C-alpha cells in the first residue's frame, strides 16, 4: 500500500459532530469516514466530471442530538 499523506484539517464543531455520528453509524473512525467521503467525491468527479451536488458551496444545516 502506498504511504499516506498527513493533512491538517480544521472543522467546525457541528461538522465534526455530524461526521463523527455518521462514522459511528458506519463503524468507521472519523478519519476513516473523512477519507471514505473524499474518495467517493473524487470517484464521482472522475465518473461524470461534476461534483456531487450543484449546491456544494452552500453551508449545510446540521441537526444536533
**What spatial form do the alpha-carbon principal axes imply?**
globular
In terms of structural class, how would the helical and strand content be classed?
Answer: mainly alpha
| Total number of helices | 2
- Work out the radius of gyration: 13 Å
Beta-strand residue fraction: under 5%
Q: Report the major sheet.
A: none
Overall average residue pLDDT = 84
Distance between the termini: 38 Å
Please give the number of β-strands: 0
Low-pLDDT runs: none
User: SSE string, helix = H, strand = E?
Assistant: HH
Helix fraction, binned, reads 40-55%
List the helices and strands and how they pair.
Layout: H1 13-25, H2 30-48
Helix pairs in contact: 1-2
Structure described in brief:
By secondary structure, the chain is an all-alpha fold.
Features of this protein?
mainly alpha, 0% strand, 65 residues
Structure description:
This protein has 65 residues and is mainly α. It has a domain at 13-48. Helices cover 49% and strands 0% of the residues. Helix 1 packs across helix 2 (30-48).
